[in-house]
């Protein structure tokens, strides 16, 4: 099947209100062009240099989401154009994004990454660390970032019940955080969970953004 057909199939699976982030990392510009021609406008990358190269080569109405682990020294390269950063995993990183966004004269949408998986290798705040950061209201003084929700990655396992449980916990936490800290902020509405192998479960547990790559573009060529 072609990228266009794969894309149409994935979109047909998604209910209204769930946005597709087409994860194009390690795929050539031509693959993104095909998806673009088929109507896709939101793409996700996890390497700063690769995303910037693609940004420069492709139409400017594309919305670029940075979905990887972001190093503070790389933010300045994406601050002028990135639409959303999914992986804010520390207060320090949020501060640096705010600083670089101010330099670029922009406000950047951000999601706080929560560690819900069993793997130690995944990044993110614990539930307690996230609450602690939001309780200490210093983040409210940052005028160049907008906290729009949360992001999490489930454990890489075939155990569907475990994946469901992790997504369910994150959704519950999202609701708690919204009620406690963002009750009057309409921008806090996104819950980014679900990838090619588990997005159906994520959607059923309240995801509003799914990050799908191999199901659209095929296996990656490293």
How large a portion of the residues is in β-strands, by DSSP E? Answer: 15-25%
Quaternary status of these chains?
Answer: single chain
Main β-sheet, in a few words? 8 strands, parallel
Strand tally is 8
Please tell me the overall pLDDT: 95
Read across the widest sheet, the strand sequence of neighbours is 7-6-5-4-3-2-1-8
Which spans have pLDDT < 50 for at least 5 consecutive residues? none
Considering DSSP H and I runs of 4 or more, what fraction of the residues is helical?
25-40%
The shape, in one word, is: globular
Using the CA coordinates, give the radius of gyration.
17 Å
The helix/strand order is HEHEHEHEHEHEHEHEH
Can you walk through the features of this model?
The protein is α/β, with parallel strands linked by helices and 222 residues long. It is 40% helix and 18% strand. It contains nine helices and eight strands. The chain has an eight-stranded parallel sheet. Strand 2 (42-45), helix 3 and strand 3 form a beta-alpha-beta unit. The protein is globular, with a radius of gyration of 17 Å. The protein starts with a helix and ends in a 5-residue tail after the last helix. The model has no long low-confidence stretch (mean pLDDT 95).
């Amino acid at each position: 099947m072609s990228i266009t057909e794969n894309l149409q199939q994935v979109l047909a699976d998604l209910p209204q209100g769930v946005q597709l982030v087409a994860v194009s990392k390690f795929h050539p510009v031509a693959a993104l062009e095909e998806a673009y021609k088929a109507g896709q406008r939101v793409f996700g990358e996890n390497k700063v240099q690769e995303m910037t190269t693609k940004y420069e080569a492709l139409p400017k109405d594309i919305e670029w989401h940075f979905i990887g682990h972001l190093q503070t020294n790389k933010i300045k390269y994406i601050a002028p154009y990135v639409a959303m950063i999914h992986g804010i995993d520390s207060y320090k990183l949020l501060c640096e994004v705010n600083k670089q966004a101010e330099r670029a004269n922009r406000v950047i949408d951000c999601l706080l990454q929560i560690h819900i998986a069993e793997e130690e290798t995944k990044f993110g705040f614990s539930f307690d660390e996230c609450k602690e950061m939001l309780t200490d209201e210093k983040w409210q003084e940052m005028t160049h970032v907008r906290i729009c929700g949360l992001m999490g990655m489930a454990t890489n396992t075939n155990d569907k019940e475990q994946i469901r449980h992790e997504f369910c916990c994150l959704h519950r936490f999202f609701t708690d955080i919204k009620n406690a800290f963002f009750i009057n902020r309409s921008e806090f509405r996104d819950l980014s969970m679900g990838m090619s192998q588990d997005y159906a479960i994520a959607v059923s547990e309240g995801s509003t953004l799914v990050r799908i790559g191999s199901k659209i573009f095929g296996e990656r060529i490293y």
